[in-house]
Structure formats: C-alpha cells, structure tokens
C-alpha cells in the first residue's frame, strides 16, 4: 500500500471541499481526482487537475464564443474528423496534471517526452524513501531470443530465485549505505546530492507531470504499445482508462485512429491493391524486406 | 462594442451554470471567466479556462500529496524564492486559456512566442468580418527620430487626417473586393484561401491561446514593456491584471523580480561598486559603449 | 527575377571560397548552397547551411565514436528501420537552415510549425519592398463546391480578369499609401510599425528558418500534401527535392513510410481483413461514416 | 583514459579527411572536432558537429543575402546589442552537437533542459560498461549546514575512507550481479531492460546532445554557476571553453550580460538609488527579507 495515513488524510482533505466553478467540468474525472491508483509494487498515478473536456476541443477548433458545436453528436463527429485528419492543435486545448510515483528506470524513459511540464522530487534537497521495484515472478522475463530490445518467457526456478535475491539484497544494502553516508550522527554526513549516486535504478521517485491531450496521446500511442517496456506500459494503460473517463469522444477517436490503426508503406499499399485484384503476393514479388513483409502479413491478421 | 447579442447570450449561458469541482479554484479569476474585456477598437481578451493557483505552484515544487505548504505565508515565501532563483518549472504547473481578438499585425508578433497552444480562426475555411484596427489620434505616432524600432510624437493636423483617411478607405475598399471576389452570386467565386490575400494587416483575427504561467510571464515581460509596440502592449497590460487576480503571490513576485527588476552587466556591476566606493564613474572611464552607459544611468534613475 | 545584382554578388562571394572542414559534408547539397531557387512570382528558397548527413543519423542512433554503421547498405537499412518504427530522435540530429521569401499569408501558415528557429525581416525596423504575389491564371481557383477548405476549377473569363485587376490595383494603391505615410519628406512620417498595417497579405516577407530533419519531415508531410494550399505546397515540394539531395536514404524512407503511406483506422483494418477473406464490404456493413468509407475506397485505389 | 584503441582509431579516421565546404567554417572549433576532452574519472565531452559562426548570428538578425554585417567590428557590436536586449532568436541560428559521457545522476539533471535533441545509449538494447564515477577526495563533500541543496567541506579521515569504500564495492557488486543476471551461459538470462535496474546512479551513460546556441547559453548560465552541482559544472565549464573557441563574440557577450551579470529586484534598485543618494540602507529599512538583503549585499561586493 503506497500511502501513509498522513498522505491519505491530505488526499481526503482535498476531496472534502467541492467548490463552485464556471469552468468546463467532467464528473467522470472528478471522481478520480487526487486518489492514488496503485501500480507495480510501490507506484501510483493520481490525477491532480484537468482543464477542458470534449466540448472544449470543438470550441477551440471553431474559435467559438460559447460551447463547442450545437449538439453532442456534432461534437463527436467533429472530434473524429480532427483526429483522422491530424488536426492536432484543438487537442492541445485540454490539459492533464498527474502525480506519479515510479521507478527511476521508468522515469528515465518517460522524461524523453519533452513536451510536458515536470517537477520531480529532489534528491539533492530531500532524502529518498527505502522503496524499490522488485518484479513479480511473471514479470521477471528473459532476454528475447529474436529481438534485442525485447523480452521472452519468465525466468524459471533457481535462476529466478537468484535474480530476485540479488535485486532485493543489493537494493537494501545500497540503501543502508546511503542512509549511513548521509547520517550526521557523530560524523559530517555526505552531501545528499552525492549520496544518491549509490542508489540503483529500481528505487522509486515521484513527480508532478502536466501535459496537453495531443502530446499525452502521442505518449500513450508509444507507451501503451506492445513494444513498450512492461513497467512503463502499466502506467500508460492506467492513464488510458483515466483519459477515457475524462474525454470519452476524443479517447474513442484515439483508439480507432491511432491505437488500433496501422500505417502501411507505399510498398504495402501497392501489394494490397494487387492482392485485392486477385494476385498472389509473396515475399519474393513484394519488393519489401523480409522483416517488412512479416510486419505486413501481421497487419492483415 | 465587439460582441453581437448572440455572442453575448452564449457567454451568459456559460456563466449561468456553476458546477461543483474538487479542483483548485480561484474566485478572483472565476469572476472574469468568459467575459470579454474590450481592447483597441474591436478587440478583446476573454479568460476561457485556468488550471491551478498559487498553492499549486508550491504543491508541485514540493511534489506533495496535499496542498502546497502549511500556511499561506509559507506559500508566498516559497513562491518568491522560486522566482528569484529562476526555478521556473513550478510555475509551469499553472495554465491559462484565453480567447483573443486582435489585429493581424499584432497576431504576427504574438505568435513568435512558440511555447503555447494556438487555434486561430481559419480564413481558408471561413469568411472574415469587416473589422479593422484604426488607431485613435493619440496612437497615430510618427517614426522615432532616435530609434529605428520606435515611435515619436503623435501625427498632427492634415498629415494625421490624411493617414487616417487612407487607413480607413483602403481597408473598406479591400474588404469590398474581398466580399465581391468570394461571392458566388452569378459567378464562380474565388477560393477563400486566395481571396484573403487582399486584406490588409489591420483586419481583426481571433484565436484561442493557452499557455503555462512561466511562459506567460516571459511573454508579459517582453510585451508589457515600454519597448513593445503599443498595440500589443495593451493586451499584455490587460493580461497582467487578470493574472494578478488569479495568482496574486506569483504575480507580485513577477513584478518585483522581473517587470520592475534590472539586469546589470559585469561592467555595470563593476562601475556600481566603484561608485559606491566614492569614485566618479564617467562615460570615459566606464568601459562601456556610449549606449550602454546611457542605459546604465537610466537604471540608476 | 527575385535577386538584385548586389544580392547576386553577395551570393557569388559566399560560393567563391570553399574552406576545409572535418565535419560531415554532402556534395549533393553543397551544390545548392546559397543559390536562390525561384518560386511563385517573387519568392525563393535558399539553403544557407546544413548539419549532418545520412551517416550522422546512424551515428546518433548507435551513439558511436566513429561514423554510423560499417557500410552504406547498413546505414540505409538502419534508417528505414528507424523511420518505420517511429524512432524519431536520430533524425533530429540533422539540421537545415533556409532563407525563404514568401507571401505573408503563406508565412502565417508556415509559422504554425513551432519546433523551428525563425528570424523574420522586421517591418517595425525596416521598409518592405513593393512585391506582391499575384496568382498565375491557372492558380486563380474558385472555392471548392464540396470542401469548405479547398479549391475548385480556375476562374474563367471576365471574373478572372476582374479578380486579377483588383488584386493588382489594391496592392499597388496600398503600397503607394504605405510609402507616402512613412515618408519624412515635408512631414513627420508615420511610424513604420503602424504604416505596415495598410499592406495586404499577399506582400512578400522573408525569413531565416532553421529546423531539424524530423520536424522538417513533419512539415513536409503536411505541406507537400494534396490538401495543403497550393501556394505553400510549391515551397514544400521544392524543399523535398533539396532534402533528397542532402540525405537520400532518409528521404527515400520518408517517401515510402510517410508521404506515400496510408494510415488505416481500426475499422478499416477490420474491413480489409473481411475483404481479403472474400466478403463484400459496403457502406452499409462497414461501420464507418459515409466520408470515412469514401476515404477508405480511395486508399485502395 | 576513457577511450579504447578502437575508439581512438575511429576518431583519428574522422579527423584524417578534411573536405571542402562552402558553409560557415570556424578553425577554432575545427581543431576540437571529434576529440574527447576527459572529465571526471571516466567521462568526456566531444564536439561532433557545429553549424554557424558569429557572422551567422548577424546574418540571421538582418535576414541578409550575404554575410552578417559589413565588418567584424559591426558584427561584435550587433551581437552585444542582441544579447543585451534579449533578442534571442538570432542565437538560435547556431547549433552544436556533442557526444557526452557522464554519470547517470548527472544525466538526470541535464535532461531537464528540454529544448535540445538527445540520443542516449540504450540499456534496453545494449550492455553497459563497468564504469562508475567515484569522487576525488576533495569532491567528497559533506552536506551544507546552511543550504539544504548544497555542499560543505570535504569529508575527512575515516568517514571519507568508509564512504569511498562503500561507493566502490557497492558499484562493483551491483555490476557483477548485473553481468551474471544477463549472462546466457547455462541459463535463460534476464532481459537487459530489467537487469539494468540493479545499477546505481554513478554508472556512466553517454549520449549525443544537439542544441542551439541560445538554449546552450541558458544551460550554461544555470550549470556553469556556483549553485550547480560540481559534477555537472565541470561539463558546463568545459563547454564554455569550447563555445569561446567557436563563437568568440557571442561568448564574450554571454560572459558580460549573463554569466557575470546580476539581476536586481525592484526593491534592490530602490535601495541602490537611496544608497547612491547618500542614505544608509540597512536590513531594517530595506523592505527585503533577511535572505534577499544578504544576496543584495553580495551583489555589491
């Protein structure tokens, strides 16, 4: 359970006082506000704030004085049109702010998405908690035999046990030394900004992360994808659910035109047309590399 | 008066239905929501939405579970510290969305601030209104005699009258031709995306503009400055007031450490120390250019 | 002809002095350096500088000490892999700097691509030239009957003549008044920053524009597209040719996986699978909107 | 010594073949190209490529057809003017590409500067080397007694020895286990993307980092500052030297108007004027906080 009683009390206090507002308001996401959704062994994601709703996307697209379009159906149709034709700026008019607790090696992938605002807990200034990500047995995967950047089956038996033991004991020992190094009890105490260097990448950090909906969708397309590392995908998958409760039309359009869509190269389109005309297309006559042809076949199920 | 009765009715409708929310809420800015503040002859600025408050800046700086700091005084102290020491990321945690109506030549300056989200009214798709910026007599300024990029006194007498007459009649004639060119009454009708090219840069456009507080302060520092062109400065000055009602601690810190602050070069600091030590510093012994020395003297009042 | 003899002499001078460098160098783009390629009636695009080559993309992808991969074939294969799998950061390691002269209404579309560096000729500081875009007869298109944001046939006969006459005379009159307003001959002279507001959007401006290859490809995908306005498309098409001479492998991959590619929605992929299984898919049983089904049929040729 | 013979041979090969180019070329930075400048115990910075020179800043500011201004003196004057008046876009017209090897905890600070292009060595795909940052004795600093985010004196005696021993042995043990976990010798072998989580933050990583001169100056102002952590400052200080050899006028202006400059708040300017008028300004009558007054006194030397 990732929250202390004090933290839970602070969250409860924030949820206790609804205020009247004239802003676009979405009950579906209000229900999530401030609550921590647990992820991995010590992580979470919390919605801290949001700006805009489905209607706000239409309102900006039309630069209107009032709400988006005349009707909810029109809003949905316009949003789907905008998504399909890559009109991205109206989606930038919605904004989401999250509080995320996550292992450092996940944070290092996440931060590559540059078009977002970030405030991370400072290990120069503060002391990190003794919390490390230790994978569940079925997430303790072997290196993929066919893909340098992928995972295979879960480790088995003694090997799995040995790996888990190392991950745990190395983390604990590193933290013990971290704590002893910064201690000022009878000694000078190493600077925090130096002592943190002894901590492994599975220690948890946390940050406030704020992003507009267009850039969030870009993040989700890459990170809620089967090629993304499992440990970041659990965060992306959870955020997908939150977004679906916040801007349901935009999220559905995202599912249809991005998440569930495929992009076919010029060569693939050419092959497809030949196939629909009755021709048999093979690896030999397709003018694609072996790998591309395999990807093409996979697209066609 | 820039709003039609239909537009005003849409705004009134948006202001008529407060909703409960758990988000950070600021009565001072709620009072402005959706209302159009008139600027120049046909322009306006309207607050459409906001995210965050002074406390949200502290909450992000501390990556906290509840509100910012324990007390309002602590919030103000922390905000001033962050501003003074250029810790900009916590200010990025607040976001403002505006609807702005402004002349095209002002829009062209404004858009250079790239770190913002924009949806502009499309003259490819829609028909522009017959509204042009015609300066008030005291804003009809002569070219500065000393600064290539500045203004001098207001034009006088016949010259002023002649200029105003040209601005008005050229605008009207251009718009007449624009309207006749796109008309499909008894003719094909020129494409809107082409016809717009006949319209001068004082025609009004409008956009939704969304920006975080850090980048908004950067915009305001440059555009609420005496060197900025008057016609953009009136927008910046008005936005300053809105921001002061939204995040009063942050705005006060911005006034003290940015708007009202001066930056002194290494040479200026050196001269200053010499002056405080009783030495007389002159243009000859200051090791600055003539122009810099003039700027230095101005800083010292 | 867009260049004065003095401008041509400056360009010739820049091309007269090759210097030795150890940087990645591409003869194909060196041949274009500084030369103005004429576009529209008074516009041009000039390559001012470039950084990197195809090999530099691989070098960055591999974070290598020497060149990219061991062989040219490997470079091409890696580049195609990176493009296909949306690994965009290695393409950001190449940079192009252009000098572009273009009508203001084109510049206003162009500037929406925010991830680029821009220095525009200042009409606050300097005086604009008397140069306006007047379309060729076959570019004088009517509004599309089926697409609010598109063009139809060219205007014919008297209507075409009338439009051209207005565009020309309105431009000339506006410029005459501009020139007279800023004149300081026997009068105060209106400030340049104000006088420019009388000039229509077909006047030419110019800027230095610098962008990395990833963001340039994004610009080209949207602007070298049949849905882009013709007047910006001629610039994008020309830049495509320059890029093909600069980074031929990357450009070919861009053609295959972006320009010539199609993105199919989840529904389209589903229909496609049904079609390949022999089922007849119609507008009635496809679970797409009318418009989407039309787009789908177009993809399949 | 951070380079293997193979790496050195690759660098030598890149330096062996000068090519003719028509681009702006700077001998001062050509001399550095590809060479690794050692930093900390295993790190380095290498210049991989550059675009532009001092003259290119002026060329863009003036949107000129040829070089920048007529003379070298004019170039310097214009550059100093642009820097002093915060005209930042011309500086964006120069670009620098570096290859940097640095400890992960330094990389985590560095990456917060978002307006840059980055390709980092992938520990999902590749195996990290056994190289860790172990501070020199005089860099093994105690926590500051007065500043939560700072360092005090170097640790002494047994405490220093104990800390060094822990840093070394924890790093070695973590790496041993990392190597054993990914080994496929008689076992499945843990996925690389998981095994890396056992490695502490003082392990070295490397990346290609490309940035424009304006954003580089912003980075240097914050990181070549006495408040920056020592381990990132050594990189910033070294990059300062490289930039001085590349764009000497711009670098001098940066030193005078940014690095060596001070920003005084409205209150400080007020106090200064009172002091220059002969008044004695004290902590009691200055209307600043204790801390600000201390900062003010420090500015005045």
TrEMBL record, chains A, B, C, D:
Residues that hold dUMP according to the record: 109-112, 120-124, 196, 223
GO MF annotation terms: flavin adenine dinucleotide binding; NADPH binding; thymidylate synthase (FAD) activity; thymidylate synthase activity
Gene3D superfamilies: 3.30.1360.170
Residue positions binding FAD: 89, 112-114, 120, 212-214, 218
UniProt cross-references to SUPFAM superfamilies, sorted A to Z: Thymidylate synthase-complementing protein Thy1 (SSF69796)
Keyword Metal-binding listed: no
PROSITE patterns according to UniProt: THYX
Pathway it works in: Pyrimidine metabolism; dTTP biosynthesis
Alphabetized UniProt keyword annotations: FAD, Flavoprotein, Methyltransferase, NADP, Nucleotide biosynthesis, Transferase
E.C. code: 2.1.1.148
Cofactor(s) this protein cannot do without: FAD
Cofactor note: Binds 4 FAD per tetramer. Each FAD binding site is formed by three monomers.
Keyword Calcium appears in the UniProt entry: no
Catalytic activity: dUMP + (6R)-5,10-methylene-5,6,7,8-tetrahydrofolate + NADPH + H(+) = dTMP + (6S)-5,6,7,8-tetrahydrofolate + NADP(+)
Active site positions: 223
Subunit structure: Homotetramer.
Family: Belongs to the thymidylate synthase ThyX family.
NCBIfam families: thyX
Name assigned to this protein: Flavin-dependent thymidylate synthase
């Amino acid at each position: 359970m990732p929250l202390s009683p004090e933290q839970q009390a602070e969250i409860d206090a924030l949820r206790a006082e609804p205020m009247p507002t004239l802003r676009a308001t979405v009950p579906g996401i209000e229900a999530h506000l401030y609550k921590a959704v647990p992820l991995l062994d010590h992580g979470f994601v919390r919605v801290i704030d949001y700006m805009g709703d489905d209607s706000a996307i239409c309102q900006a697209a039309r630069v209107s004085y009032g709400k988006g379009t005349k009707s909810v159906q029109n809003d949905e149709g316009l949003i789907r049109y905008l998504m399909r034709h890559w009109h991205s700026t109206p989606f930038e008019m919605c904004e989401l702010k999250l509080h995320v607790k996550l292992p450092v090696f996940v944070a290092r992938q996440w931060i590559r998405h540059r078009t977002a605002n970030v405030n991370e807990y400072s290990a120069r200034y503060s002391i990190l908690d003794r919390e490390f990500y230790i994978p569940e047995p079925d997430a303790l995967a072997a290196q993929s035999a066919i893909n340098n950047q992928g995972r295979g089956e879960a480790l088995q038996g003694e090997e799995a046990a040995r790996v888990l033991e190392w991950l745990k004991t190395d983390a604990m020992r590193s933290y013990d030394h971290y704590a002893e190094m910064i201690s000022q009890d009878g000694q000078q105490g190493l600077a925090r900004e130096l002592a943190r260097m002894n901590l492994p990448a599975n220690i948890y950090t946390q940050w406030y992360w704020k992003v507009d909906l267009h850039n969030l969708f870009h993040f989700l397309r890459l990170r809620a994808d089967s090629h993304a590392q499992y440990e970041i995908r659990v965060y992306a998958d959870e955020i997908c659910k939150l977004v679906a409760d916040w801007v349901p039309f935009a999220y559905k359009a995202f599912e249809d035109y991005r998440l569930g869509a495929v992009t076919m190269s010029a060569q693939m389109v050419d092959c497809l047309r030949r196939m629909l005309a009755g021709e048999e297309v093979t690896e030999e006559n397709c003018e694609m590399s072996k790998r591309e042809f395999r990807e093409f076949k996979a697209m066609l199920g």
